[in-house]
Each structure stands twice: as C-alpha cells, then as structure tokens.
Specification:
Order of helices and strands: EHEHHEHEHEH
Strand content: 15-25%
Number of strands: 5
Number of helices: 6
CATH superfamily: Flavodoxin domain
Radius of gyration: 15 Å
Structural class: alpha/beta
Strand order of the largest sheet: 2-1-3-4-5
Distance between the termini: 9 Å
CATH class: Alpha Beta
Largest sheet: 5 strands, parallel
CATH topology: Rossmann fold
Shape: globular
Length: about 180
Amino acid sequence: MKKVLIISTSLRGLSNSHELAEAFARGAKESGNEVEMVTLHHKDIKFCIGCISCQKTGKCVIGDDAPAITAMMHDADVLVFATPIYYYEMSGQMKTLLDRANPLYGGDYRFTDVYMLTSAAEDEAHVPDRAVSGLEGWIECFDRARLAGSVFAGGVTAPGEVAGHAAINRAYEMGKSV
C-alpha cells in the first residue's frame, strides 16, 4: 500500500482537471492505496519571497496554507498534480505551490513517483508539453523522484465537460497502476 497525495490546483468549481484527479483517486483506492486529495480552491497560498530560510530550518516563514500542504507532500509516497492548462502552462496556483514546496529540497522526503493530470480547451497533443516540462524541472531537483506518467484531456472548456472523455478512463487506469 502506498500513500498517494493528489493536489488539484484549479480554482474553478466542477473543474475538468479535478475530475481527472477524482478518477485517478478512484483507481488508486481500488488498488488498496491510501489516497488523500487536497484542492487549492479556497486555500491561501502566497508567493515565495526567496528568503531561503526554509533551507536552514526546513520550514517556511510565511504563515498560510502552503506549509501544511508541503508537509503532506513530504510524507506521501506518490504525488499527483491536476491542473488546467492556461496559455500552454500549468496554473499559476500550481507553480506557486511548487515554489513554496522549497522546504522539501534537500530533505528526507518520501515521494518517488510523480504524476500529472491536465485539461485544456485546445486538443492538440502538444498542448500540455510546457506544463509537464515545468513539473519535470521541479522533479529534477529531487534525486529519488521521477515523472511516472501524465494524462491529458484536450478539447474540454466548460466546467464538467470532461465527463465521458477518454482521459477519465486513462486517469482511472493510471491510478489503479500505482
């Protein structure tokens, strides 16, 4: 059994990327894993101020919701990020959280496998490439971690439009394989 943390980064209700996260969670739970999902909707996550205090203390000096999420990331075996694609990139909320997860760098984190679930109005295969590349850049800073897989749901715009999309099943199957 693995401890799976899914972080849904969309701020929109009935988010298409969140639906992918839900499908991944169902698959991971059915395979006997412990699954926890966090949504950044209604979370207070401020920008990193670059003080680097966290590298000395292992803790962020900013008093918002990011340190609690980072602590959950630290203790998870598997991380899953779900994000809408905006202007061919991950959501700003996701990027801000990745920056704020700096206390993990150089620490004794548990995660090894990292997954990415994305959705966008555009449906060309290259649409998630920059977002995935951005996450890969973050992963590169963690020697034991790797990008274990990604799922893209293209051609979905309206909230909930991803229902019935083939990517839902791919996310579910990916979750089952954890």
